[in-house]
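Researcher: Predict the fold of Tetraspanin.
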Amino acid sequence: LSPGAKMGCFTFIKVMMILFNLAIFLSGGTLLGVGIWVKVDGQSFLKIFGSLSSSVLQVVNVSYLLIVIGAILLVIGFLGCYGAQKESKCLLMMFFSVVLIIFIAEIAAAVVALVFTGLAETLLAGLVTPLLKEKYGVDDTFTHIWNVTMTKVHCCGLNNYTDFNNSYFYETRGSYPRQCFGVSPPLAHPHLRGCLLQGCFQQILEEIRTNAGVAGGVAAGIAALEIAAMAVSMYLYCRLDEK
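Model: Structure tokens for Tetraspanin follow.
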């Protein structure tokens, strides 16, 4: 290619890099703002989006998840956008390094999820079950999230109804949550109903397996974008040496 063509290609890729990372920066700011809103006023968020929320997102702390993802996207967007605009080799290398670290972490997480599913279930149960015993019936937001989850997923507790044994709710009410009984009148022992033998964790796992193809496609798309972003940042980095 002639020097003019090379410069035109460099300018085009630079502009695309700036626009792409500007979009990432704005998306990160939006997620960060929503995460802070959920943290400060969770009830309002649940009233608006509760019925649309994913069962998986109802088990984890949505506010902290959004804040972390938003902050990461803000950093990536800033490094990529400002680094390309200023043609800063330092910022471009930092952008490449951050994206590479995230890419490696995603691969490691996928391997761990595939190999250590049982361990992940044990750890999750060890974290969530004590919260059910302590917070269900005490914290309104936490209770509402689990009520919506158990109603929509048709499950009881994380593992099963025994998660509520010796809990604050059971000790004060003398019964399990009404969501554990389905639509029929409350029974003395919800395990007499077969469907209530299932905990929410297994139900959510089934939903994840059912949509594994879609999730895999999204993950592959994200990985492709990350590889493309690293390649473009390295192209700009190397071309700066020739200018």
